[in-house]
Amino acid sequence: MPPSGKLLWLIPVGCLGLVVVCGGLAAVIYGVVRTAIRSSEPYRVAVARASANAELVAAIGTPITEGSLPQGSIKTNGGSGSADLTIPIQGPNGKATIAVQATKFAGTWEYTRMVATVNGRTIDLLVDPPANPDVDL
Questions:
Q1: Do 50 and 114 share a domain, yes or no?
Q2: Are 118 and 52 in the same domain?
Q3: pLDDT tens figures, 78-128
Q4: Are 131 and 52 in contact, with CB atoms under 8 Å apart?
Q5: What kind and span of H or E run contains 67?
Q6: In whole angstroms, what is the distance from residue 85 CA to residue 65 CA?
Q7: Helices (H), strands (E): how many in the chain?
Q8: Which domain holds residue 20?
Q9: CA-closest candidate to residue 135, choices 9, 50, 26
Q10: Span 13-35, pLDDT tens digits
Q11: Which of 3, 65, 103, 116 supports an S-S bond with 123, CB 3.0-4.6 Å?
Q12: Is 67 exposed, middle or buried (0-12, 13-18, 19+ CB in 10 A)?
């Protein structure tokens, strides 16, 4: 027996409800991942070094703000781990991308690569000391 006309509204409402629930779940997962990556030491150190780098600041201006979601991964297991991140940043005069690679040994992160790319130019953030001595690296 086919469903009555009075019950046909349940099909689109049920589908819409499923879409809303899936969208909400995706938003929660996005928020958790974003917060976890942004609170990691490799992310924080890279953004601090970029913000303190005179050459990068001259290229994109201040204040430097982070993009919506970095790409890559951070894996930790106790005192060891690895990080491979790409962090979009921007200032009032342009955009740049930070690439970070690090390995964690005995609880301490060691950075093997930390560069910012702006206008096709690469700036090594591990070589250039910060211009601001108050920045905690």
A1: yes
A2: yes
A3: 889 999 999 999 999 999 999 999 999 999 999 999 999 999 999 999 985
A4: yes
A5: none
A6: 16
A7: 3, 6
A8: 1-39
A9: 50
A10: 788 888 888 888 877 767 766 66
A11: 116
A12: middle
